Structure formats: structure tokens, C-alpha cells
Amino acid sequence: MKTRRQMKIQEIINNQVIHTQEELAELLRKAGFDVTQATVSRDIKEMGLIKVPTSEDDYRYAVPGTAQPLSTPDRLKRRLRETVVTVNDSENLVVLRTIPGNAQALASLIDHSNWEEVIGTVAGDDTILLVVKPAGAVPSVRERIAKLMQ
Fold first, then answer.
1. Residues 90, 32 share a domain
2. Model pTM?
3. pLDDT score of 59
4. What region does 121 belong to: left with phi over 0, alpha with psi -120 to 50, or beta?
5. Do 39 and 2 meet the contact criterion of CB atoms below 8 Å apart?
6. Structural domain of 143
7. Is residue 44 part of a domain?
8. Of 17, 70, 5, nearest in space to 41 by CA
9. Sign of CA dihedral 120, 17, 29, 105
10. Nearest to 35 by CA among 68, 88, 43
11. Stretches in the chain below the pLDDT threshold 70
């Protein structure tokens, strides 16, 4: 039953825009599955589903690797302004502290912005680590972030 349910979840996620666990639970119920929000939450965790930005400035569930978050300069600028609390650096690293729960979405936007000097990001709940190459480019990355936050 669990395998069938998770297959149905993947089908729903791939074919519809699902914003909340409750929306997903309702669609599963309509498909004949007896589920609670807690069951759906466990399935989402087990399946490794993620939330990605939509074009409507919202988030939806997606299977990792199947959906590319939209990345525009305006969206990145807005996210930086709204969520970044502090910016620090050390050697070839830039560390952004965000409002809790925002680091992964912002890191994804940075990744998809294709900044040549940023070779990758690592994000937790409220911290993003930008790896910069060469180390001498750290000041220009910080300057770019500062300009976008203005």
C-alpha cells in the first residue's frame, strides 16, 4: 500500500502544482487512499521531495532533479533583500545568514544565476556557504550581493 501511495504521490507531483501537504492529501483521498496529513508528511520525507519556487512567487513540491527553479535577477534581488540578515567571508568563502527556512531557496537561486566566481553553494536552514574561486573574487561577490540588496 505504501509503495502504491508513494507512486501516486510522484505521479501527482509530476503532473500538478501542489503547494501544501493538505492539497496532496486531498488528491490522494480522491484517488482512493486513506491518508492523513501526518502520513503524507512522512511520505514526503521518505521520498525526498523538495519545494521549488514557482513563477507566481510561491513554492510547490517537486521530485529532486525534475524541476528547475526559476531564476531571474529580480527574484534573486527580492530574495536577498527579504531574507539575508548578515554577510561575512573568510578566505574563499562567503557566508550568508538568512531568516530561518530561507537558505535553501536562496542558494538555489544563486546556483541557477551562474555566477562565474561561485563554484557552488551549501545551504542549511538559515545559512548559505558560497564557495568562491579564485579567492581574490570574494570582494566582488560581496559587492554584487550588496548591490542586489540595495
1. no
2. 0.55
3. 85
4. beta
5. no
6. 73-149
7. yes
8. 5
9. positive
10. 43
11. 55-57, 66-72
